[in-house]
Request: fold
Amino acid sequence: MKKKMQHIQMLRGFLFILILAFHSFMPYSSAFWVGVEGFFLLSAFFLTKKLLSKDNISIKEQFVHRIKRLYLPYILVLFIAGIFIYINW
Reply:
């Protein structure tokens, strides 16, 4: 298992909370756009770091990795959205 930088993981968690606040219906929630921008910035940084560290990279490998990582959260979001639509129909 690769050792992850603890401070980066804490930053990702904080940005996740800001993203949730941004997408909520709280007053002044539009001020939390910094979380979305920061998360995109971190993603671009790590993708660039990964691309520069290898001689060649497999696009198929990248997609398989992303699908495995995001499949369950995606299904969960679809399920919750379906319940929300059903309740508010």
